[in-house]
Amino acid sequence: MKTLTLHLESHDDVASTIDKISWGRARRFLLVWPKNSRLMRSRLDLVLIQRHCIRLGAQLGIITQDPDVEEDAKQLGIPVFHSVSQANLSPWRRKRSKRRSFFRRPARTFQRNELEAFFKEKVVNLKKEGWYRKPVFASGVLSVFVLLLFFLPSANITLALAESEQNLRLQVWASPDIPAPNLSGGIPTTIGTVIVEGQDQIETTGSVSFPDRFAVGQIVLTNLTDQVVIAPAGTVVLTLGDPAIQFLTEREVRVPAGIGESAAVAIRAQQPGRVGNVAAGQIRAIAGLIGSNLLVENPEPTSGGADIMGPAPSEQDYENLRARLLSSLEQTAFKDIVANAGTDKRLLPQTLKLEKVLEEERQPAIGQAGDRLILRLRVEYSAWYIAPEDLETMVSTVLDAGLVEEYVAVPGSLQILETTEPVIEQERVGWEVLASRKIRSDLKKEEVITAILGKSRQAAEELISRRLNLKSQPIIRFYPGWWPRLPYLPFQIRVDVQ
Prior knowledge:
Layout: E1 3-7, H1 14-23, E2 28-32, H2 43-56, E3 59-63, H3 67-75, E4 80-81, H4 84-89, H5 112-129, H6 133-151, E5 154-159, E6 163-175, E7 186-188, E8 190-203, E9 206-213, E10 216-223, E11 229-231, E12 236-239, E13 246-249, E14 253-255, E15 262-269, E16 283-286, E17 294-297, E18 306-312, H7 315-341, E19 346-363, E20 372-386, H8 388-401, E21 407-409, E22 415-418, E23 423-425, E24 428-441, H9 445-452, H10 457-467, E25 475-479, E26 493-497
Parallel strand pairs: 1-2, 2-3, 3-4, 5-26, 6-7
Antiparallel strand pairs: 5-25, 6-24, 8-20, 9-18, 10-15, 10-17, 11-14, 12-13, 12-16, 13-15, 19-20, 21-24, 22-24, 23-24
Helix pairs in contact: 1-2
């Protein structure tokens, strides 16, 4: 018959051992306990393992050095071995115990006179021993009655506490430098930023002159060589001033050979406008290599160059448009910052300011012609937030400092009214508020209940009225209604505030 040997570990328990047996396929399971271990010393553990083996139709044997486990196994009929080899060589079935022999005793017979004497003796003994039954019964009934006195009655007390108003006018200061609400009226702020951009345009009101017609004239070219010099059309001649004014020849000209020979040619200014009108003798240079062979001079002034006036943006136009666009962007920034704040923060509008201009683009530039000025801005705004709970915490702390002893604030009664507009002063925002809240006597239910335990209705009402400031007499209800006094146990009394 196949025997599966399972060596148990120190961390094994009943569940893991049964799991190992379930995975094994054998008719006999031999469990080997670790040396010097206190594994599964409960007899119930062996019972559970044995039952599982029986359900599988298998036999169970163990190897252990623990005397307690060995004793439990023997009592349960589980074979105990000292080694694996012994388990393989020895039979596993336990010896059958000898069946006990039973025999019937003969029935005892009694005489009539013996039975009568026996019953008379029992009746006398019962009469002698029955004297204590009534006191025991009475004490039991009395105990039940006492328990009812303690646990049956209960009471419900309803109190209408009188309320008064506490008012305080104080100055509030908000700044990012304040870490937490304090008694001096300071509350912290957080700084929020937002980036907005926009574009606007206006008609220009300024004017600027710009070139219209080209100046024309005539120059004389003088030969410096003994050869014919040809000056092609478009030859550049210019003045010697700074900046130099350039002219172009209108046609090709041939200067006769010989030093001092000359030829005249018409010219036109390279750029339109009055700047091309130069005085006689101002044109003295020729551009390019040809200039080393010829001299140039304008015997007469050039003329015909003219400018005209046209619309253009002025500096004032720019300032007006910039102010208008920034005003629009400020409104947009305010809406965005309010949206970012959510419902748990409050924005201080007085702190909204322009931090910096990130981008600025204007067309046309100042001094250039144009009938409309277009301005685009991308700017960053910042503002301060305060948390309403910080303001309430600060105001409550200041009010608590002036609260009369044995009085407490009524929850949810605090009201804060701003009496002045916030003003920025020395890197902080200040304003005045009027705070008010309801206060009432400090009700300590445990003390009230302890003071009225076991008292009558009238005594309890008088005691409560002396201790607390009430709007009306306390309402005391007994359960059951005919009960004359308040319970003696605190948990049987409930106090409610109206």
